[in-house]
Amino acid sequence: MKLPFNFWHATVAALFIATSAQAAEIKVAVTTSFYNSGLSDLLLPVIKDDLDLDVQLIVVGTGQALRLGKAGDVDAILVHSRKAEDTFLAGGFGTHRRKIMYNDFVFIGPVSDPAVLAKASSASDAMQRIKATASSFASRGDDSGTYKKELSLWVAAGVAADDLSTNWYHAAGAGMGATLNVASGMNAYVLSDRASWLNFGNKGDLELLYAGDPTLFNQYAYIPVNPELHPHVKTDLALALETWLVGPKAEELIANYRINGELLFTFNAVRN
Fold it and tell me: What is the pTM of this model?
């Protein structure tokens, strides 16, 4: 059966309209701690509605996110390791750094608390107590922002890398959620960002034992990839997303994102 010309014309037009109506897409490398917090599940649908923008998240540790940015494999990154971010920017790989939100790192451990972290006077004291008692400790071990923070805390506590015995120190080489699962299975201590811990569902006999040291501050920042190095990156979309992330809608959503009444992030978006 031969179909009339106007049928084919209408079909082609419909296909063109459907294709042209597709939302724009951007790739953003984000940390596993951000993803494990559950906040992205709240933000992404609203971003899609407001900007007609599909944000494809590449969920990796901070170190890998920075490498993806350097290679131009993503359009922007959302990470949480200031020293590494400054190195990234100094190398010309990003255009600028924008603070978005912060929370803190916390020490999680077994309810029995063999290292008595609940009585620690500082983050350094907490690390020293774990080392002195050879208590099981689960580490990210994956070049993430959390792992970088952990290593800096060991150094500040005067604990050398050679002193991290495999008899009690266990590197998971995995993301935050997986490492928390390792800690739960081993009833071990672990350093976590607060948001991932609050959203973690397999707590077992673990609980939050120590927090509050200023050194445990955990800032998340957004960095667009430099189009001068990678002309193919979608800078206009990266900047549109940034504008949304520092705007009133994002602030409201972040400020109201709680689990069991506890705030996971504090919004503090400014250019820095």
Answer: 0.86
